[in-house]
Write a structure and sequence with these properties.
mainly alpha, 2 helices
């Protein structure tokens, strides 16, 4: 039988960090979803070809990678 001997303050901190991580991931997913929706609307409204859509997605991926996510804000 396992007995958890972790001090209460450490458990509280661990729980807070877990919650903050989950909230951060949810926020990132929301931003990603919003950005993809905007890209799709742009592609549809401007009647972009498949090749142009691929270029748009690649440019967005490059912007996100080079700015560490700051491109979404």
């Amino acid at each position: 039988m396992f007995v958890d001997t972790t001090p209460a303050p450490m458990k509280d901190l661990s729980g807070l960090l877990t919650k903050a991580t989950q909230e951060g991931k949810a926020a990132a997913a929301d931003l990603c979803s919003l950005r993809l929706d905007k890209l799709a609307a742009h592609a549809a409204n401007d009647g972009l070809s498949a090749t142009e859509i691929i270029e748009l997605i690649r440019a967005e991926a490059c912007a996100i990678a080079s700015k560490g996510g700051a491109a979404w804000q």
